[in-house]
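Lecture notes, unit on protein representations.

Consider one protein chain, 373 amino acids long.
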Amino acid sequence: MLVVFGIITVFYAGFIGLIAGGVLFGGRRRVSSPTCQGISVIIAARNEAANLPGLIEHLRRVNYPPEQYEFIIVNDHSTDASMAILDPLRAEPNFLGLDFQEREHLYTGKKAALMYGIDRSRFDILAFTDADALPNANWLRAIDRAMDEQTDYAVGLTVLLDRKKPRTFRLKTFERCVYAALCAGGLAWKIPITSFAGNHAYRKDLFRKAGAFDGIGHLRSGDDDLLLMKMMPHIRTAGFVYSPEMKMNLWDGADSKTRHQTNIRRASKFTCFPWWLRISSSAAFIYWILVYLVVGLWLFSLWHPGTESIAGSHTVLTMLAVKTGAELILLTSFLARVRLIKLLVLYPVQILLFPLQFIFYALRGTLGSYQWK
């Protein structure tokens, strides 16, 4: 067991080191870009009457030339007052409120609503966020700077804020930073690991060239990571934008049941991943089980000195040190670049909880169904 654990740890640390290198050295190039390119922001909203007023208020504050942007908010079969809130926007020059009520469409769920908005957009750069977002006033300028002549795809960090205590110092923020670090480091090497639907942008011609949502349109999720995987062969340059202006705050309004279903939905995409990501995810699943098993046996032998076990082996401590060191290099590099380094103190807690959650939802998402709002 120790041999297998050691071998997988070396590969795991090597992969994390590769991603850390992408975070450390990626996204630092300086290429002259056009100023104030045209940007169409597409937002799908289903039963978001509680969030739309806040979203619209923040969108009105954007610092960008009015003739160079548009906000397209698509009402996606809402049964609440969402459309009543969007209707008055038709009188505002930079807003377009659309009512999407088609029951039979080429695509399913949110993708159908997004496609409806994309088809009616005017500009080549398409940016996306969610209806519960609170965009920075300079968000569009951050996208404009990121989308230089060679860049086709850009993504930024999303942070979920609790309505009662809207702060970033949360385990949930740390967890999102883990995924964002994988996203950022992967993009530096043109490895599409994951993305964030609430804060990304790409060129319309790239979207068309990749076949739009064809092949994933039957899934209710995947308009971010699965789409990125489809696009990657056609992308010249993709990058993670570390600028604070690109960071997107979103309200974390989901209750525990909704959050549970969301995690299942995300994990259910496993069978749609490319072969290399399925193998990598499976290896991570096996590795985390081995970590708990090896550490458990090691601790057991410490509490029972007479037991023949791996207690005296330096291999366990060495492999855990290699694993922890690689993770800390990656997380420290990323958190420093997004200016959230204080979150690093949460690492000891998160490293105990995250693998358990990963293992549980990997099984639950692969074997079970989920509910969609």
